[in-house]
Amino acid sequence: MTTTSKDPILVVLQLTGGNDYLNTVIPYTNPLYRDNRPVVGVAEDRVLPLDDKVGFHPEMGPMKTIYDRGDMAIIHGVGYPNSPRSHFRSMDIWHTCEPDKLGTEGWLGKATKDIDPNKENVLTSVAFGASLFRALVLPGVPVAVVDDLDTYGLLPGISEQTQRARILDRFARLYSPAIGTGAVMDYLGQTGLDTLEGADILKQAPQMYSSSVEYPDTVISKRLKGIAQIHMANLGTRIFYVDHGSFDSHSNQVGMHDKLWQDVSQGVECFFDDLKEHGVGDNVIMLMFTEFGRRTHDNGSGTDHGAGGAAFVLGENVKGGQYGEYPSLESRDLEQGDVVPNHDFRGLYSTILEDWMHLDAKPIVEGSFEKFSYLG
Fold first, then answer.
1. CA 179, 185, 187, 192 torsion: positive or negative?
2. Least crowded by CB within 10 Å, which of 19, 87, 243, 270?
3. Is residue 244 helix, strand or coil?
4. How large a percentage of the chain has pLDDT more than 70?
């Protein structure tokens, strides 16, 4: 553990599509795992053991390296009551902390406003992706959104405008059916292209960057490298957001899930190696989450939508280990065939907001929830 007086930085990596908890942190010595996974179960001799009960997916070797050095907290059984098992609704709940009604304000949008209430830095929050993430949305709060930092700005004027138009259009098409065209247009009208103006400054970051770390040629690695570049450029960014997927493994799960975790694990390892090489990792943590886990029993080719899942918090200042209890696989304890969450995701957020970002979590997550002590 090191101490730092630098501003704390949060990187969120969203595993979009519903990552399979049971095949990620595998209860490999539990016979009920074998009974429920006749097709997609991971053979015991391929599991990467963390202890005598659970182990990582075989493609998560780089993640195990991080875990073994004490820089990763695994939070078991994360979720919320009465999972709707819908991608859009569940992700909306995670993004807005509103499980009982349709939310309009992102939890990290609120955090960004608390960090920079006067909008002094349009780069306080930066997102990498093809669309704005709802978690970052709050009227009047700017977010710099970049699809590909390597190509952004190479064609003067045209590339920026094209990316901006595409990102805003995707946001409008994604959220208008749920919260209404008026609400979406109000948001875009208030922040509009100002939401993305900070991206112009980001073009400087790759020019200032040099590293011996060789990232794989994958989408997630390119985006994590972009985050590292911006972080090292000292532009004042406090929140980064990126996603990867889709982890929606209804069919052909075995090869699909292998490839997803290979790409994520390698990218995350390179990202933290890069920060370490430059001595800039001591004030950075990464949260990895998914909107829900998957059905306990496989469907003969993959797994269907579930409820409880796992989250991961990584970084030099994380107290590594496992937190919470692995949910029961006993059939009498399942709900609709799914393991039941036992740690509210708003407690996960509260831990990060209060113990890392030093913000008041209650108005952001709208309540008080159980926290674990893997930070601070």
1. positive
2. 87
3. strand
4. 86
- Rounded distance between C-alpha atoms, residue 332 and residue 350, angstroms: 31
Each domain of the chain, given as residue ranges in start order, spans 9-365
d(CA 253, CA 20): 9
Per-residue pLDDT tens over the stretch 143-162: 888 877 876 643 334 455 66
The two three-digit tokens of residue 265, written as one number:
């694990």
Grade residue 197 by pLDDT with cuts at 50, 70 and 90: low
CB 264 within 8 A of CB 57: no
185: pLDDT strictly greater than 70? no
User: What values do phi and psi take at 101, rounded to 5?
Assistant: -150, 170
Angstrom distance (rounded) from CA 176 to CA 162: 21
48-49 vs 125-128, strand pairing mode: unpaired
Q: Does domain 9-365 have CATH number 3.30.1490?
A: no
Beta-ladder partners of 266: none
What contacts 310, CB < 8 A, 6 or more positions away? 19, 21, 24, 25, 74, 75, 76, 77, 78, 293
Model pTM score: 0.90
The residue behind tokens 């740690």 is 343
Token pair of 299, please? 């469907």
